[in-house]
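Q: My labmate handed me this sequence with no annotations at all. I'd like to see what the chain might look like in three dimensions before we decide whether it's worth expressing. Could you predict it?
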Amino acid sequence: MDAKEARKLMRRPDVRVVLAYSRDVDEVVGADREALLARVEGFLQGNAPAYSRFEMGDFRDPDRRVLLMIQESC
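A: Here is what I predict for the chain of 74 residues:
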């Protein structure tokens, strides 16, 4: 997913956000969601710590609901 599409989805409050880190996969909500999206935005701007990486993709169901999957690795 390119940065433009990621930012578009990250701005939408109706998009569910799921984080995959190591072996854990969890939905991220509330303040944790905002903190995660701020870290992702920093990464997209090139301000991530060394060896930090995010990969993103989206999933859509027939009802047009969207889930943003973020995989974090370091």
